[in-house]
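LAB NOTEBOOK - FOLDING QUEUE
OPERATOR: T.R.
BATCH SIZE: 2
PURPOSE: Compare the predicted structure-token outputs for two unrelated chains run back to back under identical settings.
PRIORITY: normal
REVIEWER: second-year student, initials M.K.

ITEM 1
FIELD SEQUENCE / FIELD STRUCTURE:
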Amino acid sequence: MKCYTFLLTACLLICLPTAAWAETYAPQKVVYHVNYADESRINATFNNINNHLAAVDEDQLDIKVVIHGPSLEYFISATSDSTKQITLDNLKLRDVQFLICGNTIAAYQLTVGDLYDVAEEDVVMAGLPAIVALQQQGYIYLRP
């Protein structure tokens, strides 16, 4: 019985600080990498971002999403899809910044005007170097 009490006490001492720590998070800078065409995967990534925003105080969180390759098609189809528009608008209202690859726009032979709610200042020259630059600035890389 003495051993059981000792183990229970040890577990409580170890778990209590962890549980308290998990309630609050330090400021976070995160770059989500999205370069896939599968809309269910894109939607799952956007759900991850919403969960991230729910877990960490928005004042403590800086999220950037780099869009390149086939994921650009989401922004193309959003021009006529109100559900996608609402999804993107809600994330932007929570200060999520989308960075769109200029090389991908050129490869698709499009302009910024062909994409839903993308401005020139949202376009980076190339997606992968933008991710590296953000990592060099302390952003944590995530690719769900």
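ITEM 2
FIELD SEQUENCE / FIELD STRUCTURE:
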Amino acid sequence: MNSNFKNLLAPFTFPISGIEVSNRIVLAPMTTFSGNDDGTTTDAEVAYYKERNLSAGLLITACAYVIKHGKGFHGQVGADTDELIPSLKRIAEALKANGNKAVLQIYHGGRMSPPEELVDGQSVSASAVAAEREGAQVPREMTESEIEETIVAFGEATRRAIAAGFDGVEIHGANTYLLQQFFSPHSNRRTDKWGGNLIKRMTFPLAVVDAVKQAAGLASHPFLVGYRISPEEMENPGITMEDTLQLVEALSHKQLDYLHVSVMDFWASSMRDKQDTAARAQLIAAKVGHILPVIGVGGFHTPEDAEKVLALGIPLVAMGRELLMDPHWLTKVKENAVDKIETELDINAQDALKIPNPLWQGLVLRTGWMPMKK
């Protein structure tokens, strides 16, 4: 065992559920676009997960929609009916086969759902306000009954994750999707109990957390509940860091296992205030980290990068691209073979890396997103 990275390789116990993971690396949730049209997984997607089941102590899936009007991607898997439990079980078993912990990310796309993936072609959101991007559809404002139905759907998806054998769920409250849309003053212009001031804009995401926690409490085994959050928005009006610190304070009282801070670069300054140079996850950890463990993500490549973040008191580090390029990254760290870690995506290695065609095509097209080796 490599003693140079003792923090990275140390176990961690989540204080609420008591679940222990064997190291501090988390497989970040990455959309694979590789499910079937009916929401089931495919052999290729299962093989992709199986190849990476030793890549981290905690393994988070691509997001699964909890209700049909929340589907956000072509090839996305679902968790919206009991008929999908066997499909979810295939993913859980692939990820857990070597003893690590598997978490299902649960999701609703809201106004970011592409019309062509929806039954009626119409996205929904907190309010009828389109995203500030070219060609964005104006969503339909959700009715009170649809909001309540969606809250229940998150709880039901959690029940199905338990039945499928997952060790936890991660509530996707980040990356401009529905929970963030309800929290944002840009996308939530409501004047009822689901919108208005900051406290009211928290109502929907906190209600989802309550429904998920209630369902998780019925599990016969320890079960994690995490929450993914984006700290800020570029839009005006939009989510500020001050808003987020109030939300995480509220989340810290919900008996969650972790808070996953979604940013492209862990060390980046504020996107709204260039004078604010603090890392967003550091600010959040300073506010609630003594109660709610924080997962840092964004721009980590080497074990030294991970150790630097862990030394700040951030207990877990999520990695995405690195574990795509080299599913055995962590094994090489353990075996003191860091010099053998792949740092570029070999365009001839798709079969060896078990990357499904839809994901592979996207990676090759996005050559600026990750280094490529020909």
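REVIEWER COMMENT (ITEM 2): The chain has one domain: 3-373.
FOLLOW-UP: none requested
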